[in-house]
Amino acid sequence: MKEKDYKPKQLLTKREKEVFELLVQDKTTKDIAQELFISEKTVRNHISNAMQKLGVKGRSQAVIELLRMGELKL
């Protein structure tokens, strides 16, 4: 495998990233659920899973970490 062909594995799933992209747009859990056609509980699960992967204790810490890592853009 050539070095340029290597793609690092994404930390977040596509859906987790979508949820956080909406969070940084100041959307509520309810807004995100409606926009993505999922339940509010599922939104909270995606946020919780991402926070566990990142090793942080809150949504805001998760957003800061994702911005620092280049996973999210403002």
TrEMBL record:
GO terms for biological process: regulation of DNA-templated transcription. Residues 5-70 form the HTH luxR-type domain. It comes from the Bacteria. Keywords: DNA-binding, Transcription, Transcription regulation. InterPro entries: Sig_transdc_resp-reg_C-effctor, Tscrpt_reg_LuxR_C, WH-like_DNA-bd_sf. One of its GO terms (molecular function) is DNA binding. The keyword Heme does not apply. This is LuxR family transcriptional regulator.
